[in-house]
Structures are given as structure tokens and as C-alpha cells.
């Protein structure tokens, strides 16, 4: 399954979703789509504020470049621009199919893909 991140200018980026590590988080995200939010770039991560109402599903605290994760404690969807240790438990969602350096701040819609 894929999610599509659609930016205000019409640019779209695909996310390959993997359910094995965080099945509850992934199912809630897919069920809630389409979602409108905004993306913020902060250092090695792109941040999308989002409350999915889930708790931690893993003990991991890091994300690899291009990985999409959810941090239950701060209610944020994060796309790692570089490898990063976030210090809080993360729920892995999948991987960006494209260059994370091309992500831009601003309004964003998260929708289901094929």
C-alpha cells in the first residue's frame, strides 16, 4: 500500500507503507486519510503535526534517511531527511519513494494511493 503526500503546488510524493512494525498506527493513518495539515522542516526532519490517538508500538528511537515514522508522545508524523535519533519511541510507517531533500514546508494533504 502507498500513501501520497500532496503539496499545495500540486507536487506529489509517494510513501511505501509497511504494516509489520506498527499495525495500529498504520491502520489509523490509512483510515483517517485524506488528511490536511502542514509540513515544517526542522534540521534533519520534516514534521507534520498529527494526532492519531495511538501509543508506542516499538522501542525504537531512531529513523533512517527517507523513513516515515510517527511519534506518539509529540503527536507528529516525521520524515527523516537524514539518519536521526529522536529520543522518543517511534512507530515506523514506511519509506519515502523519492528524495527527502525535495520536501518543502507548507500545506500538505495525506491521501491513500494505489
Offer a few descriptive terms:
globular, 114 residues, eight-stranded antiparallel β-barrel, two-stranded antiparallel sheet, mainly beta, 1 helix, Cyclophilin
Would you give an account of this structure?
- This protein has 114 residues and is mainly beta.
- The chain has a single domain, classed as Cyclophilin (Beta Barrel), CATH 2.40.100.
- It is built from one helix and ten strands.
- The protein has one helix spanning 23-32; strands at 2-7, 12-17, 35-42, 45-49, 62-63, 67-71, 76-80, 84-85, 91-97, 106-112.
- The strands form two sheets. It has an eight-stranded antiparallel barrel. A two-stranded antiparallel sheet has the order 5-8.
- The longest helix is centred in the first third of the chain and has 10 residues, at 23-32.
- It is globular, with a radius of gyration of 12 Å.
- The model has no long low-confidence stretch (mean pLDDT 93).
- InterPro entries: Cyclophilin-like_dom_sf.
- This is Cyclophilin TM1367-like domain-containing protein.
Structural class computed from helices and strand pairing: mainly beta
Summarize the biggest pleated sheet: 8 strands, antiparallel, barrel
Count of the separate structural domains: 1
CATH topology: Cyclophilin
Named CATH architecture: Beta Barrel
Helix content: under 10%
How many H/I helical runs?
A: 1
Q: Radius of gyration from the CA trace?
A: 12 Å
Q: Which consecutive residue ranges, at least 5 long each, have pLDDT under 50? A: none
Mean pLDDT: 93
The rough form would be described as globular
Amino acid at each position: 500500500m502507498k500513501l501520497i503526500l500532496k503539496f499545495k503546488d500540486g507536487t506529489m510524493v509517494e510513501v511505501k507503507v509497511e504494516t509489520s512494525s506498527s499495525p495500529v498506527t498504520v491502520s489509523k493513518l490509512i483510515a483517517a486519510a485524506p488528511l490536511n495539515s502542514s509540513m515544517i522542516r526542522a534540521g534533519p526532519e520534516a514534521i507534520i503535526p498529527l494526532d492519531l490517538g495511538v501509543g508506542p508500538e516499538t522501542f525504537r528511537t531512531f529513523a533512517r534517511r527517507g523513513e516515515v515514522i510517527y511519534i506518539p508522545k509529540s503527536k507528529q508524523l516525521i520524515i527523516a531527511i537524514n539518519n536521526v535519533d529522536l529520543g522518543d519511541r517511534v512507530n515506523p510507517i514506511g519509506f519515502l519513494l523519492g528524495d527527502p531533500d525535495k520536501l518543502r514546508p507548507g500545506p500538505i494533504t495525506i491521501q491513500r494511493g494505489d
